[in-house]
Design a protein that fits this description.
By secondary structure, the protein is of the alpha/beta class. It has 26 helices and 28 strands. It is globular, with a radius of gyration of 25 Å. 59% of the residues are buried. The protein binds iron/sulfur cluster.
């Protein structure tokens, strides 16, 4: 078989690096960064070169599994879908649709086909018990942006390629490669800020790799970032440094924000956060004085009891320093597939609430921190079945030990997943999707979060196993079963109906370039690609940069992208105010009542004395992607990387030495974990990476089992959430640490 070279966007994290993949005799022989990719320019991290290993992994499931007498056995696809139909139909008939919950994992954000298929599937299931990884780490940003700008996906990103001053909080892009800010090569981009005379400041309880490369590292007590941000805002107002400039015309509520932050004096903030008062003030002055500046907060700021406040205050600072929507500040990406937004509609959360704890819905989801409550508490609507799609909640959601026990007792569990892992070991049916190299790729989610406008389509590298459906087809067939059409419903007819409905919507949409056109003509123009690609093509061609099916011959289409295997650079971000706004007022609504009210909760907390004792924070690692890459030997070999970091002063006090095993306990549970001593972490804080805890009985991931590590979510507390977004609280968990 001939050797070939193919190019592809890496789907493993948000950085979207271009890869150059060498294939010989049907196997990947080498992967390097694609030097001709206009965005990533050859950058690659250790994970990117392992797509071949993920594809070849002997533990990756190729055929469906069904539980028979306690064991998972291979069955045909037809038998697997028939099993789902038989059991799901019976359960829904007895207990109603709300008895079925859905958990949508993080990899779905990297999979355009799933993005397109999941909503119809959820609709067909007729359940409001919808949960996802979003309420583990990012819902606060969606809620804050929904309230400020009118849409939860109108998220401004730091224009790091042009800024003169970058203030990062709770973000470690040198390990994570960035999140809610898509940028390949963060190390190079941060270095470039300093090379052009700018400054980088990192606020974090740990001196992370990112902090080590910054001009200044500001340690902060975990969970208190919102107070620091409010203190900086207060200083801007108090010292006459608040200067929104021309933004003022597009913003309402500045006076309300000024009043709301008035109590956050640097002195009070210092006592709460551990950040000295003069540092609080000097950060405000630096932000105000820089020619361009941007504040960017990520997971460490979101996974706290004040997550939405922190997400909001980041944007408040960008507005109050005149840095929202200008080059070098925080800017709104403009993804190629976006159409002009529809009529303004107020963004709301809490349209319904969870049954047991009364927690509010956000973006159509309930907080995953309450999924265990919904399974455990009897009564109408009790969750008795779970569908997971590319998710591993038994490792990645709070109080995972409790959830794991409840998964074992469900009446039905169906998982769309390539592995028999900590979660899917409880499944009755596992439907494995094709490998990452057997599907085409387009970043619908991350082109909308990118620090530069780009567009890049990657065809599949390999064919699927004979007879195996695409992941889109799997989800469509599940939707057909949920809708009562049966496991035997013709998938081709189902997807054709989906496509026809989307074309009809585009033809009816007055903002679409094909408004009023003949739907049949559009369908013919989409050709005979797999239907998920036709849906994607429809989105791209009717997007603001699309060819409009002939209206703009130079515009984007899938066919055009296929002629650009390295991707297309669409230029730097451009100002988008006020067009991007879909608030009722048509302005940036800087002082949403719910946030102003929640600030009072934070202000009351300022005067509470810290309880003392140790607190837990999580840790992101360059060589892992949440829990889903630990079965790749090259990524887990070497020194045990699932260790707890501890300050030497704490270790001495607690009777621990480097390499000893500590028992870390919380209200939720305990783990025994090796300790690494480092002065890079604040005294009083213990840090354990997440995504570990493999090798449980019934799993089939040999490499991961050999490097099991401990599950940090056995310690995190599901009873506490950020009240505005329902997001889990993963940082600042009170723990005790003793020798094991
Ligand atoms: S940084 Fe992310 S996108 Fe780039 S190669 Fe690594 S995992 Fe892939």
């Amino acid at each position: 078989m001939a050797s070939r070279v193919t190019f592809r966007t890496c789907p493993l994290c948000e950085a979207t690096c271009g890869l150059r993949i060498e294939v010989e005799n049907g196997r990947v022989t080498r992967i390097r960064g694609d030097a001709d990719d206009p965005f990533s320019k050859g950058f690659i991290c250790p994970k990117g070169s392992t797509l071949g290993a993920l594809h070849d992994d002997p533990d990756r499931l190729r055929r469906p599994l069904v539980r028979r007498d306690g064991d998972h056995v291979e069955v045909s696809w037809e038998d697997a879908f028939a099993e789902v139909e038989r059991r799901l139909t019976t359960l829904v008939a007895t207990d109603g649709p709300e008895a079925v919950a859905v958990y949508i994992g993080n990899p779905n954000a990297h999979n355009f086909a799933n993005t397109l298929a999941i909503r119809p599937l959820v609709k067909a299931l007729r359940t409001r018990n919808v949960y996802s990884a979003s309420t583990v780490d990012q819902m606060p940003k969606h809620v804050a942006c929904g309230l400020l700008y009118g849409h939860p996906f109108s998220i401004p990103v730091p224009d790091i390629d042009r800024t003169a001053f970058l203030l990062l909080l709770g973000a470690n892009p040198l390990e994570s490669n960035g999140s809610l800010a898509t940028a390949p090569d963060w190390p190079g981009r941060l270095e470039a800020i300093r090379r052009r005379g700018g400054r980088v400041v990192v606020v974090d309880p740990r001196r992370t790799r990112t902090a080590e490369r910054a001009d200044l590292h500001v340690p902060i007590r975990p969970g208190t970032d919102a107070a620091l941000l409010a203190g900086i805002a207060r200083t801007l107002f108090a010292e006459g440094l608040a200067a929104p400039g021309t933004l003022a015309a597009d913003v309402i509520g500045i006076d309300l924000v000024e009043r709301a932050v008035a109590g956050f004096t640097p002195h009070r903030v210092a006592l709460f956060t551990g950040v000295p008062a003069d540092t609080v003030a000097s950060l405000a002055r630096e932000l105000a004085a820089a020619p361009t500046a941007v504040v960017y907060g990520r997971i460490g700021t979101h996974t706290t009891a004040y997550g939405t406040l922190a997400a909001w205050l980041v944007d408040v600072l960008n507005v109050m320093t005149g840095n929202l929507d200008r080059p070098g500040g925080a800017m709104f990406p403009h993804a190629a597939h976006e159409r002009p937004r529809r009529v303004p509609r107020p963004f709301r959360t809490g349209r319904w609430h969870s049954r047991v704890r009364g927690l509010p819905e956000s973006l159509g989801e309930l907080p995953v921190a309450t999924l265990a409550d919904e399974m455990e508490t009897p009564g109408p609507g009790q969750v008795r079945a779970l569908l997971t799609i590319a998710g591993n909640p038994a490792l990645t959601t709070p109080d995972a030990g409790r959830l794991d026990g409840l998964l074992a007792g469900l009446e039905l569990m169906v998982c769309v997943d390539p592995y028999l892992n900590a979660t899917t070991r409880h499944a009755d049916v596992i439907l494995p999707p094709p490998s990452v190299l057997q599907k085409s790729h387009y970043d619908l989610a991350f082109t909308a979060l990118s620090v530069r406008n780009v567009s890049d389509f990657s065809p599949a590298v390999f064919e699927r196993e004979p007879g195996s459906p695409s992941e889109f087809e799997i989800l469509v067939r599940l939707a057909a079963i949920a809708a009562g059409l049966g496991a035997d419903a013709d998938p081709a007819a189902l997807v054709a109906a989906t496509l026809a409905a989307e074309i009809a919507k585009a033809v009816d949409d007055p903002t679409s370039p094909i408004h009023g056109r003949d739907g049949a003509e559009i369908e013919r123009a989409l050709g005979d690609r797999p239907v998920e690609e036709r849906l994607l093509d429809l989105m791209l061609r009717t997007g603001h940069r699309g060819d409009g099916f002939g209206v703009r011959p130079d515009g984007i289409s899938l066919a055009m992208l296929e002629h650009h295997p390295h991707g297309i650079d669409l230029g730097p971000l451009e100002p988008r105010l006020p067009d991007v706004l879909t608030t009722e007022s048509g302005k940036v609504e800087l002082a949403p009542p719910s946030l102003i009210a929640d600030l009072t909760r934070l202000e009351h907390a300022l005067d509470t004395t810290a309880a003392g004792g140790m607190v837990l924070v999580g840790r992101r690692q360059l060589r892992t992607a949440n829990s889903w890459t630990q079965n790749v030997a090259v990524l887990v070999r070497g020194k045990d990387s699932c260790a707890a970091q501890l300050h030497p002063d704490d270790a001495g006090r607690l009777g621990l030495v480097d390499g000893a095993t500590a028992r870390v306990s919380s209200a939720a549970g305990f783990v025994d974990v090796p300790v690494v001593l480092t002065d890079a972490i604040m005294p009083g804080v213990v840090c354990i990476p997440y995504g570990w805890g493999h090798g449980l009985p019934g799993t089939r991931q040999a490499v991961a089992a050999g490097h099991a590590g401990v599950n940090v979510n056995l310690l995190t507390d599901a009873s506490v959430v950020d009240p505005l977004s329902g997001n889990a609280v993963l940082n600042g968990i009170p723990v005790t640490v003793v020798p094991a």
